[in-house]
């Protein structure tokens, strides 16, 4: 890996793609993306009820040290999502109310950390979106050099600077920047299909018929019988 550095300039997808994917939400994006890009379920929202999508500004830090998060804030643009990864596992609280205040004032969309967050009551009161793997009051140092805007792995997912990060109460999903337009189209098709299915469900039909699952059961060798005696 290159020596510690801060890369200021990255390519970002068209803002309309981020806006569209935010509207679809994590579950739809994940399915439309071929079930790719979903971070581990330990990545949870500190502030429930939020839904965001924005280009990733990445930070790679040492465990227990958040100086590179501070550096990432300096280069992030309005609408970006700062993604913090660490070189070794940690649950220390790398973000709190003061850092979130900076982010909120600068229009940063959210912060996602493969680490802990603290000041959770204040974060909820502010309504600033943070996703983390833990809530911990443990503090951090500012003594170890790291990187901003390099490829990182966060929540088990590889993220390149500029990739789109979609986050809501269902978790966090990452869409490679080059795939974003195709994923948007796939989301639109999926939503249209679900809308049509919903109408049929509201009429009382069941998913075995709406989704053609009876033939799948037959292919799996599952029989339908009238009584337990018939199943012997």
Task: Record keyword descriptors for this entry.
single chain, alpha/beta, Glucose Oxidase, domain 1, 3-stranded parallel beta sheet, 8 helices
Explained architecture:
By secondary structure, the chain is an alpha/beta fold. The chain has a single domain, classed as 3-Layer(bba) Sandwich (Glucose Oxidase, domain 1), CATH 3.50.30.40. 33% of the residues lie in helices and 22% in strands. The protein is built from 8 helices and 14 strands. α1 packs parallel to α6 (180-202) and α2 packs across α6 (180-202). It is elongated, with a radius of gyration of 21 Å. The N and C termini lie far apart (63 Å).
Name the helix and strand elements from N-terminus to C-terminus, one letter apiece. Answer: EHHEEHEEHEEHEEEEEEEHHH
Individual helix count: 8
Largest sheet: 9 strands, mixed
Question: How widely separated are the two ends?
Answer: 63 Å
Fraction of residues in β-strands:
15-25%
CATH top level class name: Alpha Beta
Strand elements, count: 14
Report Rg. 21 Å
> Level of helix content?
25-40%
What is the residue-mean pLDDT, rounded to a whole number?
A: 97
Q: What is the global morphology?
A: elongated
CATH-assigned fold name: Glucose Oxidase, domain 1
CATH superfamily: Ribonuclease E inhibitor RraA/RraA-like
* Number of structural domains: 1
Q: Supply the CATH architecture.
A: 3-Layer(bba) Sandwich
Poorly predicted runs: none
Pairing-aware structural class of the strands and helices? alpha/beta
